[in-house]
Design goal:
The complex is a heterodimer of chains A (527) and B (313). Among the domains of chain A are: 109 residues, Dipeptide-binding Protein, Domain 1 (Dipeptide-binding Protein, domain 1, Alpha-Beta Complex); 219 residues, Roll (Dipeptide-binding Protein, domain 3). Helix content of chain A is 31%, strand content 18%. Chain A has 17 helices and 20 strands. The longest helix of chain A is centred in the N-terminal third of the chain and has 19 residues. Chain A is globular. Chain B is mostly helical and 313 residues long. Chain B has 2 domains: 60 residues, no CATH class; 217 residues, MetI-like (MetI-like fold). The longest helix of chain B has 36 residues. Chain B is globular. Chain B starts with a helix and ends in a 6-residue tail after the last helix. The chains are: A alpha+beta (527), B mainly alpha (313). The interface between A and B is large, with 69 and 58 residues.
C-alpha cells in the first residue's frame, strides 16, 4: 500500500473508530502511567523484601535520612541531628510541618515506633538495635537514640535504600512485626488510593497536597521530593511486547524495566527516551549451598571462582555491552565507595584445570551436582546455562533441575540434602546500593544457619564485617574492607558473576526522571 | 422436567466435592512454599519460617483441609495468602472483563461462523466452500498471540485506530469499554469462528442429505427457507453444544489473550495465583469455574428441548 493510500485509509478508519468509540485516553496530562516490573500484592514494606513493595513505600512514606548522589546519608524527615562527643547519643529533631495523609502531625513517637518495628525485621535494623540501649521520644519533635557502644553505621542504617525504616503513624507502627499492617497512612509525597487498587491490574496514587518537601534540590533519594504529578498509575502488564506497544502508542509513559532485546527498537523511536536511573546497577551472583559436599569444602567453592568468566555471563544475560562491565572484582560494587579489587585474582582468569584440581582436593568424585534453573526468569536462566556448561567443562556431573522462579524460591529455602529435594547451586542478583555495604549485602551474610539460602558459614568473616561497621574512621574502615574482601575470596560465600545496569524507558515528554537507584516519582513532570 | 433439573442440581454436589478434594491435594502435596515467595528474594530462612508459621502453612495438611472445607460449607472461599482479601471478592472483580470478552467473542463468532458454515455447506465443493474452509483452517492454525500482536501492530500502532491494551469497565465509559474489546475479540474470536464454521458446515452437510430436506425441496420451498428453517434448526444441537462449551472455556479464562491485551480477567488471576502459589485463590477459581461448567452443561442440555422437541427430560 502506498503511503498516501495508507494515510487515507488510516484517516478514514480513525475517524470512524474515533466516532464510535472515542479512544482518546481519559487521563489528564499530569497522570503518569507506569508499567511496573511486578504486581503489588503486599503493602507492608517491613513484612517483605519484595522490590515492588519497597517502591510503593517510597511513594507513600518518607524516611528519616536518605542517601544523596554520593551515597552519603542526608537528613530527610529529620531537620537536624546531633551526635554526642562519645558517639553514643544521637539526637534527631524532625522538620516542622510534617503531616500524615490523615492530617495528623508526624511526631517523634511515630518515628520511634516505626524504627523499632523496622529494627525487629530488617537485618541492618536488627544490627542497629543490637547496639542500641534506648530509643525514645524526648518531646513531640525530638527523639534520642542511645548506643551501648559506638557504632559507625547509625546514619547509614536510617538512610538504607531498600527496605528502609519508613515512618508510619505510631498506631500502625505498633502492629506486631509478624502481622501485616492494614492501615496505609504515610506522610510521603503521594497517597495510596486504596479504593482504586485492583490487584493484578493497577495501583493508583494521588499527590499529597500537604506534603512539605525539603528546600534542597533532589539528589538520589535525598533533597526535595516535589510531587509535580497529580496522579501516578501503576499498570501491571506482564507481557513485555504489550508493554512496549503501549509505550509506543503513548498509552503508558514509563516502562520500568524493558527487556534489553527492545533497546534497539526503542532507540530508533523519537518518542521514547532511555534513561539510566541506577548507575550502580545490579550484581549477579552464583550461590553455592555450603551445607553439603562438595561446597561445604572451601576448595570446591574456590573452584567456582575459576570456572567463571564474567564477560561470558554478562554477554549471555545482558547482551548489549553498553549495559554491563566486562569485569568487576569487587564484592561491594564497582563504582561505589567500597569498590576494591583486592583478592579478586582467582575470579579474573578462567582456568578449568585449576577448577578441576580444586574440586579434586575438595574430595569431589563425580557425584551429581544439582543446579536449579529458573526457566521463566531470563536474567537468571541465562547465567545458569553458562554455569552448567562451565561446570561440565570442569568435569562436573551436573543435574539440571528446571523450574519456575516461584518453585526455585521454595526449593532454595530447603536445607534437605541435594538428592532429597535440596540443591547445590543457584543464581540470583541483588541491587547495588545495598550490595555496596557489607552489613546490608544480603548474600554476604555468613552467619551459617542465620544466613540466606546457601547458608554461607564464616563467623570470622562476620566478625570482620562487624568490626567494619563499628569503625567510625573512614580510612581504617577502608583497610578493614580490604581484609574482608581478601577473606571473602578465600572462603567464597558466593561468586559475583557480573555487574550490569538496566535502562528505563520513558516517553520523550516525561521530564525530571531522577537518578535514584530505582524508580521514584517525585520531580517528574509531563510536558 | 423439574425432576430432571433437581437430579442434575443434586449431582453437582459429588462433582464439586471431587474437584475440591483433588485440587486441594494437588496443591498441598507439592513441595512449593508460598511463604518463600511472600518473603521475597532477600529473605533469610528464618523470615520464611516465620511467615509460614503466621500463615498456618506449617500445620498438618489434613487440618488445613478440614478448616478449608468448614469454611467452604459456609460459602467462604477463604482469603488470598498474598493480598489478605476474600477470594470471592477477587474473582468478582475479575468477572466483568472475562464475561465481556466471552460474550463479545461468542457474538462475533456466531454472527460470522453460522452464515459462513451454512454457505459453505450449501455450496459444498465449490470455490466458495473451499475458500471459506481454507480461511477457517488458517484462522484455526494461527496462535492467538500471533494474531493479537499482528492486530496490535496494524490497527493500534500503525493506524492508531484502537487501544493496544487494558480494559475499561462499561460503567466507567461505554465507548472506551467497546474500543478496548475490539482487538481481543477479533484475536480470540477468529479461532472460535473457524471452529464453529467447520462444525456448522459438517452438521449442515449431514442434514442436507436427509430425506425431509429432499422432500422440502420437492415441495418447491425456496433455498433460504430450506437452509435456515428446516436444516439449520435441526443442525442446532451440535452447534449449540459447541457454542456452550466455547462459552464455558472462555469464562474459565483465556490466559494468552488476557496476557497479550493486559486484560485483568479470571485467566490472569488464575495464572498469577499459580505462579505465586496462592493456594486459596487457585482453589477458589477452580471451584467457581467448575461450578460454571456444570451450569453451562445443564443449560446446554435444556436448550436441546427447544431445538429438538423429541428430546424430553
Amino acid at each position: 500500500m502506498t503511503t498516501s493510500k495508507k494515510s487515507w485509509v488510516a484517516a478514514a478508519g480513525a475517524a470512524l473508530v474515533a466516532g464510535l468509540f472515542s479512544v482518546a485516553p481519559a487521563a489528564a496530562d499530569s497522570t503518569l502511567k507506569v508499567v511496573v516490573h511486578a504486581d503489588l500484592k503486599i503493602l507492608d514494606p517491613v513484612w517483605t523484601t519484595a522490590n515492588i513493595t519497597n517502591r510503593h513505600g517510597y511513594l507513600i512514606y518518607d524516611t528519616l535520612m536518605a542517601l544523596d548522589e554520593k551515597y552519603v546519608p542526608q537528613p530527610q524527615m529529620v531537620d537536624r541531628y546531633t551526635i554526642s562527643g562519645d558517639k553514643l547519643v544521637y539526637t534527631f529533631t524532625l522538620r516542622p510541618g510534617l503531616k500524615f495523609h490523615d492530617g495528623q502531625p508526624v511526631t517523634a513517637a511515630d518515628a520511634v515506633a516505626s524504627v523499632k518495628r523496622w529494627g525487629g525485621r530488617d537485618p541492618m535494623g536488627q544490627r542497629l538495635m543490637q547496639f542500641t540501649s534506648a530509643l525514645e521520644a524526648v518531646d513531640a519533635s525530638t527523639f534520642r537514640l542511645t548506643l551501648k557502644e559506638p557504632y559507625g553505621l547509625v546514619l547509614e542504617s536510617l538512610a538504607k535504600t531498600t527496605s528502609p525504616a519508613f515512618i508510619m503513624p505510631e498506631r500502625v507502627a505498633k502492629t506486631e512485626v509478624s502481622t501485616q499492617i492494614s492501615d496505609y497512612t504515610g506522610s510521603g509525597p503521594f497517597i495510596f488510593v486504596k479504593d482504586e487498587w485492583r490487584p493484578g491490574n493497577k495501583v493508583i496514587y494521588r499527590k499529597n497536597p500537604d506534603y512539605v518537601p525539603r528546600a534542597e534540590p533532589p539528589s538520589y533519594l535525598a533533597g526535595g521530593k516535589v510531587a509535580k504529578l497529580d496522579r501516578v498509575e501503576w499498570l501491571y502488564i506482564p507481557d513485555a511486547n504489550t508493554a512496549l506497544s503501549a509505550l509506543q502508542a503513548g498509552e503508558v509513559d514509563y516502562f520500568e524495566v524493558p527487556p534489553l532485546d527492545f533497546v534497539p527498537l526503542m532507540e530508533r523511536n523519537r518518542n521514547i527516551r532511555l534513561v539510566t536511573i541506577d548507575p550502580l546497577g545490579f550484581q549477579a551472583l552464583l550461590r553455592p549451598n555450603s551445607l553439603y559436599p562438595p561446597f561445604n569444602n572451601v576448595k570446591a567453592r574456590q573452584a567456582l571462582l575459576h570456572i567463571v568468566k564474567q564477560e561470558d555471563y554478562m554477554r549471555a544475560t545482558i547482551g548489549n555491552p553498553n549495559y554491563y562491565r566486562k569485569f568487576c572484582g569487587a564484592f561491594f560494587m564497582c563504582g561505589s565507595e567500597n569498590e576494591t579489587a583486592v583478592g579478586s585474582e582467582p575470579l579474573a582468569g578462567q582456568d578449568f584445570e585449576k577448577a578441576k584440581a580444586l574440586l579434586k582436593e575438595a574430595g569431589y568424585n563425580g557425584e551429581k551436582i544439582v543446579v536449579l534453573q529458573p526457566t521463566d526468569r531470563s536474567e537468571y536462566n541465562a547465567p545458569t546455562m553458562v554455569t552448567i556448561q562451565n561446570l561440565r567443562k570442569a568435569g562436573v556431573n551436573v543435574e539440571v533441575q528446571a523450574m519456575d522462579w516461584g518453585t526455585l524460591l521454595s526449593r532454595r529455602a530447603k536445607k534437605d540434602p541435594p538428592d532429597q529435594g535440596g540443591y547445590h547451586l543457584f543464581h540470583t542478583a541483588q541491587g547495588g546500593t545495598n550490595t555496596a555495604m557489607p552489613v546490608a549485602n544480603t548474600w554476604f551474610n555468613t552467619r551459617c544457619d542465620k544466613a540466606n539460602p546457601g547458608w554461607a558459614c564464616d563467623l570470622e568473616l562476620d566478625k570482620m564485617v562487624e568490626e567494619w561497621s563499628r569503625e567510625p574512621d573512614v580510612a581504617k574502615r577502608k583497610a578493614i574492607l580490604e581484609r574482608i574482601q581478601t577473606r571473602a575470596y578465600e572462603t567464597v560465600p558466593y561468586v559475583p558473576t557480573g555487574q550490569y545496569n538496566l535502562p528505563t524507558a520513558v516517553r520523550s515528554n516525561v521530564k525530571g526522571v531522577l537518578v535514584s537507584g530505582f524508580p521514584v516519582y517525585w520531580n517528574i513532570e509531563k510536558q | 422436567m423439574w425432576g430432571y433439573l433437581i437430579r442434575r442440581i443434586l449431582a453437582v454436589i459429588p462433582v464439586m466435592t471431587v474437584v475440591a478434594v483433588v485440587v486441594f491435594l494437588i496443591l498441598h502435596l507439592n513441595p512449593d512454599d508460598p511463604a518463600a515467595i511472600i518473603a521475597g528474594d532477600q529473605a533469610t530462612a528464618a523470615d520464611i519460617e516465620n511467615i509460614r508459621r503466621q500463615l498456618g502453612l506449617d500445620r498438618p495438611v489434613y487440618i488445613q483441609f478440614f478448616e478449608w472445607v468448614a469454611r467452604l460449607v459456609r460459602g467462604d472461599l477463604g482469603s488470598s495468602i498474598f493480598l489478605e482479601r476474600p477470594v470471592l471478592h477477587l474473582i468478582l472483580e475479575r468477572v466483568e472483563p472475562t464475561l465481556a470478552l466471552a460474550i463479545s467473542t461468542t457474538i462475533f463468532s456466531v454472527v460470522l461462523a453460522l452464515p459462513l458454515g451454512v454457505l459453505a455447506a450449501w455450496k459444498a465443493g465449490s470455490w466458495i466452500d473451499q475458500a471459506i474452509m481454507a480461511v477457517a483452517v488458517l484462522a484455526f492454525s494461527f496462535p492467538v498471540f500471533l494474531i493479537g500482536y499482528g492486530l496490535v501492530q496494524g490497527l493500534a500502532l500503525e493506524w492508531d485506530l484502537l487501544p493496544v491494551q487494558g480494559f475499561v469497565s462499561i460503567t466507567e465509559d461505554p465507548s472506551r469499554f467497546l474500543a478496548h474489546l475490539v482487538l481481543p475479540t477479533i484475536a480470540l474470536g477468529l479461532v472460535y469462528t473457524a471452529l464453529l464454521a467447520r462444525m456448522t458446515r459438517s452438521t449442515m452437510l449431514e442434514i442436507l442429505n436427509e430425506d425431509y430436506i429432499r422432500t422440502a425441496r420437492a415441495k418447491g420451498l425456496a433455498n433460504p427457507r430450506v437452509l435456515l428453517i428446516h436444516a439449520l434448526k435441526n443442525a442446532a444441537v451440535p452447534i449449540v453444544t459447541t457454542i456452550g462449551v466455547g462459552i464455558a472455556l472462555l469464562i474459565g479464562g483465556v490466559v494468552v489473550t488476557e496476557s497479550v491485551f493486559a486484560i485483568p480477567g479470571v485467566g490472569r488471576l488464575t495464572i498469577d495465583a499459580v505462579l505465586h502459589r496462592d493456594y486459596p485463590v487457585i482453589q477458589g477459581v477452580i471451584l467457581v469455574v467448575s461450578g460454571f461448567y456444570v451450569l453451562i452443561n445443564l443449560l446446554i442440555d435444556l436448550t436441546y428441548t427447544v431445538f429438538d422437541p423429541r428430546i424430553r427430560y
